[in-house]
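Protocol step 4 of 6: record predicted structures for both targets in the notebook before any analysis. Target 1:
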Amino acid sequence: MFTGLVQGLGTIQAIETQGEGARFRINCPDLSPADWDTGASVSVAGCCLTALDIDATGFSADLSGESLAKTTHGDRQVGDALNLELALQVGDHLGGHYVTGHIDGVAQVLAVEALDAGNHRLDILVPAGFEKFVAPKGSVTLDGVSLTINEVVDHASQGTYFSVNIIPHTWAVTTLGRLSVGDGLNFEIDLLARYLDRLMTASQ
């Protein structure tokens, strides 16, 4: 379980193909990985992965073919930056919202708009089938970042999209500040919305 508050950036040092899957080597010395335990859960651009081969400079993580196909990790290249967050521990402050690290789909950036005072607005196209899970003032996770939805628009031709505002700090210390129109983002709906939908569907 995570909070969606990014703790630092990692960089892909190597990608090794393993059958239908792959192993990533991720450098993140600023997060003191030598203090981690082997098998620790790490949110890597929003996707919960298991830390292996840990040393002072970083860690490795195995991704299945399913993970590569259903997230943006299938398109990663050496040198790409990734948002990282260690798993929430009992007693930690919950500053974002509960994030599982289980990606629902890939959302697409429709627009990037610079606002006043260093703020930015992103318009994000919702992956097909998840339109009902986004709501104004609700929570969403994009590439591991906990965000609040400002507005939801059901567009006749474009589909459903929502907007989020990014403050200067988040823009500077996460990969969101590097986004361009057309980029994909790992998308996770709010945990509460997921279970409410299941409860309502099962009761019908």
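Target 2:
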Amino acid sequence: MQADLIISNVYEDLMAKKTKLAVLGLGYVGLPVALEFAKHFSVIGLDINEEKVGQMKEGIDPNNELTPKDFEKKDIAFTTNIEDLAEARFFIVAVPTPVSRFNVPNLAPLQSASKELARVLKPGDIVVYESTVYPGCTEEDCVPILEEGSGLKMHTDFKVGYSPERINPGDKVHTLSNTVKIVSGCCDESLEVIANVYECIIEAGVHRAPSIKVAEAAKIIENTQRDLNIALMNELSMIFDKVGINTMDVIDAAGTKWNFLKFYPGLVGGHCIGVDPYYLTHKSIELGYTPEIILSGRKVNDNLSRHVAKRAVQMISGQGKSINQAKVLVMGITFKENVSDIRNSKVVDVVKELESYNVQVDISDPFANKEELKREYDLSLVDKIGANYDCIILAVKHKQFLNLDEQYFKSISNGKGILIDIKSLLIGEVKDMEYWTL
């Protein structure tokens, strides 16, 4: 009962700034969450990357999502020292949850953050996880680490909740504050305290999930559903390509019926849609059930890069050109438009596949970081787009590419030229070049 009385004061103490809120992990999710809370509470933001923390102290977002103005008039301190979090009583963990190259969930960042957090955990504290995980992970994988490292017990000494992130990088319409937030807690009281805290920054309101596992599962299926719908369209695109008809024409025609859902084919990368389903399938297989539909959708989407590269090679060869002397320009390497994030970019897979045919590939991207691309994938960006390209692949819908027309692409092409337009930006507008889209 005493622990219950202690945590009931957390919200009031945060509002009065008698205690602090801490965010562990200041990436695409953690940083905007920390800054939004810093409008109301005294916040401590922790990240293990000293260079990035230094940038944040100067009002610079390493992810290029926020402006210096977003850092102004915020009650926040940035640090790499876990001991600085001892002043806080409400902790939010927002570290990455990637998969290995074998598509197995990698909980190392989450486990490490939990182990570090345990060092400063006190009776009456509340810990909320925002990292995407499989149902059961918070209570079965993270809580034991907190308990072992702190010597405390959940329920008796501290409370735990889960509130899945819904940050969409590059999206200025669906923001943190105007998107409904799911919250959950290990008990009714912790749920209410957690909900009250998040309601301070979420104008759209919060949805109180009945359990932590339900909240974890809700996050997973948001992206799994989208992954499967895109996989269907990608498979249809491959079929229609063999038939000799355009997928967009088919979608436009089918879309005239009231209950047809318009999803479009495309490369599925990034750290959400292309990753989250593997957390669910991992847990499912662990429990003895192999989820065939979800895994089939993943297989289709993961293989699309190979399909695009193969199509490019076929088209180059079809023009009577030598493949091992071909020159290809790939425009856009980030996982989606208008962001600098290259994590799990499927355009990278297109490039690697082209290189396996000994094709020379130039990459141009106005958002990607040259050093990061080299470090992560051993790929280089060109400083300036060249000429005489046998094939141009318009891969990402960056704003800098939206006004480019066929005349531009012809001017940098070798002969008739080939334009592969993955996002269908110029569909119906290309007359002279050889044109192909999903």
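Step 5 preliminary note on target 2. The first helix runs from residue 2 to 7. Residues 231 and 297 are 5 Å apart (CA to CA).
Proceed to step 6 after PI sign-off.
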